[in-house]
Design a protein that fits this description.
Layout (H helix, E strand, L loop, with lengths): L3 E6 L3 H6 L5 H14 L4 E6 L44 E5 L10 H7 L4 E7 L1 H14 L3 E10 L3 H11 L5 E3 L12
């Protein structure tokens, strides 16, 4: 029997602020409501670091500029999940240390413990966390669905190419309105 979870990835205040789309959060909120109504667990994944960013190598092109800076950690309001799609009681929150939701996190352990084998992916950015997580999850033999309008990217053409040409090789791709979660958890 298949068990499904909705992953809401990198929808943190600082990230949402960089991707202004007034329709995105309401769309994502509707996907979260659909999942909850169907009994599908919602798992939030966000990037976070300890104070001083000791996990970040200066060689890392994306995160390297943070290395050695003061601040960081998970208490920073900028890194909190955006209030419009905030976790509910009982939702799992996973902290990752790199782009993929699996990198430096306990996501795989959490999914295996809950016997989840089907992931529904949403998040910011399509070319970042969604792409990296999809590739790693496929290699870990998860069944995958991507909610195309539950993802957002700074470059609309990159988003289009990924959801129309790249992701279908490893995942089913649907809009939020098309997605019908199967109540097979249990």
């Amino acid at each position: 029997m298949s068990s499904t979870a909705l992953l809401v990835m990198d929808v943190q205040n600082a990230v949402v602020h960089r991707y202004p789309d007034p329709d995105y959060l309401p769309r994502l909120a509707s996907a979260i409501a659909t999942a909850r109504a169907a009994g599908v667990p919602v798992i939030y994944v966000g990037v976070g670091f300890r104070p001083g960013f000791p996990e970040v190598s200066p060689r890392n092109k994306m995160f390297g500029p943070m290395a050695g800076r003061a601040g960081g950690g998970n208490d920073d309001q900028a890194m909190a999940i955006h209030a419009d799609v905030a976790p509910a009681d009982g939702d799992a929150i996973v902290t990752k240390r790199r782009v993929s939701a699996f990198a430096g996190s306990d996501l795989d352990v959490l999914l295996r413990a809950r016997e989840i084998d089907h992931l529904v992916l949403t998040g910011i950015a399509t070319s970042g966390v969604v792409l990296s997580t999809l590739r790693q999850a496929a290699d870990l033999d998860f069944r995958l669905t991507v909610l195309s309008d539950g993802c957002l990217d700074a470059d609309p053409e990159v988003h289009r190419v990924l959801v129309e040409k790249v992701f279908p090789a490893q995942a089913d791709v649907h809009t939020i309105a098309e997605w019908e979660p199967k109540v097979s958890n249990g």
